[in-house]
Design a protein that fits this description.
With 342 residues, the protein is of the alpha/beta class. The chain contains 14 helices and ten strands.
């Protein structure tokens, strides 16, 4: 808050300085005569108290001119000192370096495309961000608290915009029109609802995943434009039960998600588009499992509702369907290339 206040004071101070110079120039020009430049010159030497001689003819004999000079000195000197002190504070307190750093960050954000916007950098948001960085997905974080940003930046660097995610201007600065996805993990359902609605209006094709606290908000988030709604409390409860009744499965999933000697494994999805070389062919024809080095766990149809588990070699690869696979990042990238180029 202090830095923002200082920035506003600097802008106001500079505006008032311009107004003072303009008023002084006009005052001398109207009351005493001379050129506009003479009036500006007299205003500057009066405010600076350098003591040069008068250049406006007749000033020493003009009572209105002398009264105006007295007023200009009394009020102008105070304003000038305030402007100097504000500018000094701007440089000394690091506001300029902060401004330049934010400008460089904004330029980097402006250059990114097809990224994921993460709204909120709390406990859940930092986990989302950590996973996006792990799988090398470009992302931009929106967070209002500088303290939370600083804590997260101590762990790893990332693109970010400081501001209120519920404001259209902030979403625009984060590149909402160019983004490929958005995750909103604000601590209040109301804020997630607002972010979801605004993001859908600004980018109709965006995939939006919203966090929900109260399960009653699911339908409202869906109507606002959320592609999916996740309830961390519900998932946490399921995890607790899984640790109790199927601990080895949980261990397997944990080790898969965490980088280690075995590499970084993920369950990923590969989209089949109409332009892909694999579209219309079968899994047997493409021999994807052997060529990519990982199994195809399932295939979903266009609407995502019909799922075929462990599809056989005769399974046709249809447009807008998706293959669900498990493997390392390099294997997934290889499979994407095979699907596209054949």
């Amino acid at each position: 808050m202090r830095r923002m206040s200082l920035s506003r004071r600097l802008v106001v101070a500079l505006i008032l300085l311009v107004v003072l110079l303009t008023a002084g120039t006009a005052g001398y020009r109207i009351l005493v005569g001379g050129t506009w430049f003479d009036g500006l010159y007299m205003t500057v030497i009066t405010l600076s108290t350098v003591g040069f001689g008068e250049v406006v003819p007749g000033l020493s004999e003009s009572v209105p001119g002398r009264i105006f000079t007295i007023v200009l000195i009394l009020f102008g000197m105070g304003l000038l000192l305030w402007v100097i002190s504000t500018m000094t504070a701007f440089f000394v307190e690091g506001e300029l370096s902060t401004f330049l750093r934010r400008r460089r960050m904004q330029n980097s954000v402006d250059a990114v495309r097809d990224h994921v916007i993460v709204c909120g950098c709390g406990a859940t948001g930092i986990e989302v961000l950590r996973e996006l960085v792990q799988v090398r997905t470009p992302c931009v974080v929106i967070e209002q608290s500088q303290e939370r940003l600083d804590e997260a930046l101590e762990e790893f660097p990332f693109l970010h915009v400081r501001g209120d995610a519920t404001a259209e201007e902030t979403l625009t600065r984060a590149g909402i029109e160019r983004a490929g996805g958005l995750v909103t993990v604000m601590p209040v359902d109301k804020d997630n609802l607002v972010v979801t609605f605004m993001a859908r209006q600004l980018n109709p094709s965006l995939r939006i995943v919203a966090r929900g606290i109260n399960t009653t908000v699911r339908e409202r988030l869906k109507r606002a434009g959320a592609s999916a709604v996740v309830f961390p409390n519900h998932i946490g409860g399921l995890r607790l039960v899984s640790e109790l009744v199927r601990p080895h499965v949980v261990t397997f999933l944990d080790r898969m998600l965490r980088p280690g000697q075995e590499g970084t494994w993920r369950i990923e999805e590969i989209e089949i588009t109409a332009s892909c070389a694999a579209c219309g062919r079968t899994l047997g024809d493409m021999n994807l499992a052997e060529r990519s080095g990982m199994p195809v766990l399932a295939m979903t149809e266009e609407d995502g509702q019909k799922i075929t588990y462990y599809p056989g070699p005769d399974t046709a690869l249809k447009a807008n369907s998706r293959l669900v696979v498990m493997g390392e990042r390099e294997q997934v990238d290889r499979l994407r290339s095979l699907v596209r180029a054949g």
